[in-house]
Structures are given as C-alpha cells and as structure tokens.
UniProtKB/TrEMBL annotation:
It comes from Araneus ventricosus. The lineage of its organism: Eukaryota, Metazoa, Ecdysozoa, Arthropoda, Chelicerata. This is Uncharacterized protein. It comes from the Eukaryota.
Amino acid sequence: MAILKEPSCLGESKQTAIRRLNSLWRKLEANPNLQQLYRNFIHEYLDMGHMEQVFEVSEPTVAYYMPHHGVLRSDSKSTPLRTVFDTSCATTTRESLNSILANGGVIQESYLRYY
C-alpha cells in the first residue's frame, strides 16, 4: 500500500498494545475454547509465514505495535474465530497505521445495479 505520510509521524503505540494484549490474555484464560482457537490461529499464521517468532528484540526507531483480538463466530464451522487487527488504533500523536496509508478504494464491483 502507498504511504501518505512519513512513518516517523506515528507516535508511541507499544503501551496501548501491551494493555490490549493483557486484556486478551485475561479473556483467553477465562475461556479455554477461545484460548485453543487463538492458539490454532497463531500456529496457522506461523506455518503460513505471516509472522515469525522473535527471540532477540532491538527497539526500532519507528514502530507500530498492532493490537489484535478475536471475534467468536459460533455459527461458522470453517472459521469459528475471526482475528481482528486494529490498524485504526491511534498512537500518542493521534495517528494510526490506517491514517498514514493510502486508501485503495473499492475493489469489488457494485452489485446494486443488477437489482
């Protein structure tokens, strides 16, 4: 995606992401079914190469820590857990990842004209 603003305009996001992660941990501890589904999601993303485990962390000069959470969809057999990545979560400068990326517009054809 095209970047509209310099990533350096993003403020601090780590503390918010940590707070949200701690909240997620509490929800997972209280719900073993959700915990197992979230584990499956993590392993699937690791297997597909969408993420990787990091053992040594050096703080980057510019970083956006992306909060995420799960939405249970009990009516869905194929995907009972949908993981939501909150790229609209504002940093200390009120900017978010979404706010500095160009909107690609609608990529699906409108079906309303066929009715």
